[in-house]
Design a protein that fits this description.
Blueprint: H1 5-12, H2 25-36, H3 53-68, E1 72-75, E2 81-85, E3 94-100, H4 113-129, E4 136-142, H5 155-160, H6 166-170, H7 180-186, E5 204-212, H8 217-221, E6 225-231, E7 233-242, E8 246-247, H9 259-269, H10 274-277, E9 282-291, E10 297-298, E11 301-310, H11 313-333, E12 337-345, E13 349-350, H12 353-365, E14 372-375, H13 380-384, E15 390-395, H14 411-427
Parallel strand pairs: 3-4, 3-5, 5-15, 6-14
Antiparallel strand pairs: 1-2, 2-4, 6-13, 6-15, 7-11, 7-12, 8-10, 9-11
Helix pairs in contact: 1-2, 2-4, 4-14, 9-11, 12-14
């Protein structure tokens, strides 16, 4: 993608009829374009790792836009940026909306920035129309959501909600061998005060996030905006099949205890199980290690990890139990041993029915048919949702492609999402 191509492509088929009630598609496109210039890769993608100079530059630009919009700007000890608009009432609680500006290596230009720019555009629209909300409204930019630098994401939102274990955090190193403490020091933060981000009394009434859909539901339904029904929490189940290693040529087929045969049958059985439990459940084997991993050697052990997700913990737990039962059944069938351990678990966050009804009303008010979509990916809303009420909207994403330079959300869809968010907030 050439330097000015993103802005041109966004504006190319934009329907100016969506410029109403103070919302400006051109301003949204301009800001997405300016952010895309920070950390642009040779492939036309985005490279703004968490706590990098590029992420800092993007935050600096956002802070300037916040101030221009009349917001009071602050930053906490984890580098999270906040821009607050005072409402009519005395401040007691705040409605917060935003996302992140960091990216994966050579990622896209919409994952994160769409949420931040959309939240800020609400302020611009209210300023233009002279609307003042009853509540305080705060635009937020969370640090290091993607986690690509230290393989440990959602860092800013975890810090704000008191979910960071600093002993673990300080032990993290990036691919260059730089320790977490060194890296954040370079951007003006300190490991000694990082966790103090949780000490600020945010008293959040609700956190609302707009994000591109990292899937194809909206595209298949030909809809610009969708309601997130819940955010799935992952459970990682480590499974080890153990048999007997042996010579591939000298060991008769009838005298083998091959763990890879059991593991293969196990992996093949996984796709059918989630649908038997829940329409929103998924399970994936993405990592598998065979030892000794020789072309002419019967394996001795096979280790794999099953990533199990659903937006309801009880359904996810049922699916986990069924997967364990299947592993035990196949181990017995193939005369191998099996061990398993749950080594990572985050509780899912369902969106309350009342919140979804408010969202549905806002979507319908914009003349859009409302559909609900579970979010299989984690977002800052997943972390925030363990402490405060949350709501989410998805924006249509071409071909469901994300985390690559080909990632694309059309301006018509983004601006319609902004109108839905604006309507929703004004109903609160």
């Amino acid at each position: 993608m050439q330097e000015n191509e993103l802005y041109s492509n966004l504006m190319n088929d934009y329907n100016s009829e969506f410029d109403r009630n103070g919302v400006s598609g051109q301003r949204v496109a301009t800001r997405l374009h300016k952010l895309s210039e920070i950390g642009r890769t040779g492939d036309g993608g985005s490279f703004r790792l968490g706590f990098s100079g590029e992420e800092q530059e993007a935050k600096k630009l956002l802070k300037s836009w916040m101030r221009e919009a009349g917001l009071t700007v602050s930053e906490d000890e984890a580098g999270n940026v906040f821009g607050r608009m005072r409402g009519r009432s005395e401040p007691s609680s705040v409605l917060m909306s935003g996302s992140h500006l960091d990216s994966v290596p050579n990622g896209g230009h919409f994952d994160g920035p769409v949420g931040v720019i959309s939240s800020l555009e609400i302020v611009e629209a209210w300023n233009a129309s002279g609307f003042l909300p009853d509540f305080d409204y705060e635009v937020v930019v969370f640090s290091d959501e993607e986690g690509s630098r230290f393989q440990s994401g959602l860092t800013g939102s975890r810090a704000m909600t008191g979910k960071v274990d600093m002993d673990i955090q300080k032990g993290l190193k990036d691919s260059e061998g730089a320790a977490f403490s060194e890296v954040i020091h370079e951007v003006g933060l300190s490991a000694s005060t990082f966790a103090e981000a949780a000490n600020h009394n945010k008293n959040i009434k609700e956190y609302v996030e707009i994000h591109i859909e990292q899937g194809k539901v909206l595209e298949k339904e030909n809809l610009p905006v969708g309601i997130v029904s819940g955010i799935a929490g992952p459970c990682w189940l480590s499974v080890t099949f153990t048999g007997h290693a042996g010579h591939a040529g000298n060991t008769p087929m009838t005298d083998r205890r091959d763990p890879l045969v059991a593991a293969g049958a196990f992996v093949s059985s996984i796709p059918d199980m989630p649908g038997e439990v829940s329409e929103s459940a998924v399970a994936t084997v993405g990592k598998l290690e065979v030892r000794p991993n020789g072309a002419n050697v019967i394996p001795g052990t096979v280790e794999l990890i099953v990533d199990i997700r659903d937006i309801r913990k009880e359904d996810r737990d049922v699916l986990t139990d069924r997967i364990i039962e299947e592993a035990e059944t196949l181990a017995e069938k193939h005369d191998v041993d099996v061990e398993y351990q749950q080594n990572f678990e985050v509780s899912p966050v369902p969106v309350p029915a009342e919140t979804k009804e408010f969202l549905r009303s806002a979507v319908n008010d914009e003349g859009i048919r409302a559909v609900e979509i579970p979010s299989g990916a984690g977002h800052d809303a997943l972390v925030i949702g363990h402490r405060y009420p949350v709501a989410m909207l998805f924006i249509r994403n071409k071909d469901g492609i994300s985390h690559t330079p080909e990632e694309w959300a059309g301006l018509n869809d983004i601006v319609q999402g902004i109108h839905v968010l604006k309507t929703y907030l004004e109903k609160k």
